[in-house]
């Protein structure tokens, strides 16, 4: 049995994600607002850029089908709507039946504005007419068994279904860790330093590079040369340039005139390199340093370029939408973005209600300057339900009803349809479990950026003697005073609190329901992934409590309690590692082997493995007695990493803690740091191999750990 296609507006996960997709015209709501900005952006974004021919785009869409579902390569026909007969002036796709004269056995015709719309239409059809589910490989992969054989595909009613984009742009990328057209932060080599010694600034406030002052004439020359060289290297393929001036770096002055001159210089450099240049800027700075970026400073930067020559990414709009507190970025076009993930951490988390309504609220608000939707996560391959929903918002003109009241008799809500497709069948326990998860784990409304700081994966670098003695009462989360993703300062003496925004007991109820469904769903790869992830999360949150209990026992000089809780904490690490080892998608081995496989020489192989190990652990810039300020930023719940890295770290700490208590001595934090950092350096340079294939039965292990710790 396949679910019936929804009547009004089905949902879509984009199969073809692009950095920026320009489409021909704004929606009616936006066109009535900043029309001049729309026109300028539309003209500039097109410019001299080469556009693929209809034949090339149709072939690209067919290539997606061939890779995804090769058995049905002839069952679909793709057609670019080059003359606008289907979509008019908007961007859309239309799904319809091929009449009896269809060539090569084609049954379904998908028409669209670009290859992106064609691929989107294909996915929409597979989801809502065939009950298929497409997820990242590392979150369960594509579930296509429900797609009927060629010649038996479900027909579309009447003349077909047409869906238009409510906004014309898509964005997909996080530039936080990438240097792309960094005009305001260009590193100047030795020759340039000698030439412009008066205007090159190595102020440590701006971390670890030299900055060329925008007021220097050479700034524009360097920027122009950079863009010219980029065009020479990659071709004349874009008019859009990312430049982030003071992301997590405060300007030297809050004087609006200075800030405006800085913005003008940046755009002047861009436009000299490419007369059609459009400046794409992350809006993260307006959130992370909100105390600095007040209305005068924001306006000075945003209005320093010609109308329509800047697009802002409202980077964290799923949690802290800047458009609401800045009068639509004071008239500057922006893209509503979901950030969601920091450092590629593995944590079940989301704000489904914000995702399902936020882009619609922004687009339909008074004088809206919203021109698109985007995803800006720092890591992928996690929380598939969040990304499934967010990607649909590219084609949603109305809010999504994630869950409907049980007393309504209208068609199934989004969440039930999602779980049906994800696991290939209906299951009452699973539906109840997802209802709980929707109201708990995926309903974070506290406004805190979720960066996983569970004690197993980000062990506190702190002496228990410096912590307040009422640890047992401090079980609530603490809001950070600053909003930066990381703070380049000495480790704080206060105990960090992992983020907890939901009832752990309710989440455990959801896990129990998942386990109850195991007999029916255990062979489903998507079920196994979700089961392991939910079990991991429940045990990790439990470990946070155990850690606090251990520190509380130490402060009370209770050696028996310290031993008991230490043993439980370390045992949890080992047991979670065993759990993660039962699913291919939670292993350290593939990460390391993938890095090594890119090497051409043995030296490269060593370097790439060191890089891969270092990124998920210490992040390199440590000393013998001080961890990197970014240590554990990209922490991972991966089997192999827990036993070989997180376990020894915690064990060394608690061993010293126990010995200090027995000998009635204060904890020597610096000695522990020396010991631990030396081990970390050794591990980063290690060559030991880790499993690349799962071992053990995920359902059996999850049930066993549930009985041991949670029942």
From TrEMBL:
Residues 59-154 form the Alpha-N-acetylglucosaminidase N-terminal domain. Keywords: Hydrolase, Signal. InterPro entries: Hex-like_dom2 (IPR029018), NAGLU (IPR007781), NAGLU_C (IPR024732), NAGLU_N (IPR024240), NAGLU_tim-barrel (IPR024733). Residues 199-396 form the Alpha-N-acetylglucosaminidase tim-barrel domain. It comes from the Eukaryota. Residues 414-708 form the Alpha-N-acetylglucosaminidase C-terminal domain. Pfam families: NAGLU, NAGLU_C, NAGLU_N. This is Alpha-N-acetylglucosaminidase C-terminal domain-containing protein. It comes from Leersia perrieri.
